[in-house]
Amino acid sequence: MNSTSPDDSTPPAGLDKRDWIAGLERGVSIIESFDDANPRLTASQAGQRTNMTRTAARRYLLTLQHMGYVASDGKLFWLTPRVLRLGQSYLESARLPRVVQPFLQRVAAGTNEIAYLSVMDGDEVVYIARNGPNRSMSTGYVLGARVPAQVTASGMLMLALRSDAELNDWLATRQLTVFTSHTIASMERMKLELARIRAQGWALSEQQLDLNSRGIAVPLRDRHGTLVGALNITMPMGHESSEDAVARVLPVLRETAQAMRNLI
């Protein structure tokens, strides 16, 4: 019996038709359609957000409900905590977060600040490992937290280290979101800041997302020199000047990133 749907005839570029399961793609897109602005959706709304018909979206939602990933009151649907298993599976199975943990502990001990490993996912930074003192969540991120790359030290660093073509494409196709009075809101200014970060090889971001937050980041590269993420510190503002914070933290971050190169 042929279970291929009509959409299976147009797989994405680079993937053979035999290897593409369109239903899996749509099921994941349904899960991703929920966000802070849309925590509960009708089947019609989910369909609109995923370019599906209401009927198709409802079938996927009901399947996800049967699997325990979605709950419903008969009209509205919402995600359940079971969805967190997907992210937890990555954190528990990926090698990089495990390898970096003792090094983050070294950074935290040497600076008395919260140290992170972050990676890029689309236009967002995702924090996949952390170590350091417990503080108010206003100055730190939980594992798996996602933050716009444009307003974080690690995100701006990883953007700056992209190829010229990739960076130019990003600058030409994105809209900058303003979070505070210190957020870089001009693409021209962002371009200059990213060029400065690329030239110096590290990044500092202050008060761009939160008026009480400062971040400092350095690139994490593997033994072949390939960028795999960023090591960064997040600290509260007000205790010291930018210059003093960089002088205290940057050498520790750089030394730790260098020490890790042969292990990843």
TrEMBL record:
Which key words are in the record?
DNA-binding, Transcription, Transcription regulation
Q: Mind telling me which SUPFAM superfamilies this protein's record contains?
A: GAF domain-like, Winged helix' DNA-binding domain
Tell me which PROSITE patterns the record gives: HTH_ICLR (PS51077), ICLR_ED (PS51078)
Residues annotated as domain HTH iclR-type = 21-88
Name the Pfam families on file.
HTH_IclR, IclR_C
GO molecular function terms attached to this record: DNA binding; DNA-binding transcription factor activity
Q: Name one GO biological process term.
A: negative regulation of DNA-templated transcription
Boundaries of each IclR-ED domain copy? Answer: 82-264
Q: What is this protein called?
A: IclR family pca regulon transcriptional regulator
| Organism of provenance | Variovorax boronicumulans
Instruction: State the taxonomy lineage.
Output: Bacteria, Pseudomonadati, Pseudomonadota, Betaproteobacteria, Burkholderiales
